[in-house]
Amino acid sequence: FVFWVVLEPLLCMTYFLALINIGFHGFIEYDADGKHIDMVNSTAIVDGEDDMFGEDDHMTHHYNTTVYFKDLPAHQKSKQAEFAKYKASVFQKLSIVELSIFMLLGLWDKVADHYVDYTGKLSREEIMEMLRVRA
Questions:
Q1: N or C: which end of the chain has fewer CB within 10 A?
Q2: CA of 127: how far to CAs of 34, 39, 67, 83, in Å?
Q3: Phi first, then psi: what are they for 45, rounded to 5°?
Q4: End-to-end CA distance of the chain
């Protein structure tokens, strides 16, 4: 009884939370001064398949905590210049679980297919290499 009521849910949720945290915080990059780049270190997913209250925009969750979920589209639009400047970790049309699994398995081609290139200048191969290095 204790196993099924306490231990099994604890173990399952621990693994699940660890898995999705890989997707939310799996990329890292530093600027010239050695400070981490916010736009890279937290992930945002736009047009996600399971985003009900803005949970797919983990970047805003950490760095713009007062933005209400209904205001996220306008907020994301206001950040597009910064997204382009830093080549932000923004993806589209996938779930955080899919992103995490693709990263764990090293499927950079699949991750690159969902990457949003706000610069419009990166090739698929450049995106794959950038994401691999940041991970």
A1: N
A2: 23, 15, 29, 14
A3: -120, 125
A4: 40
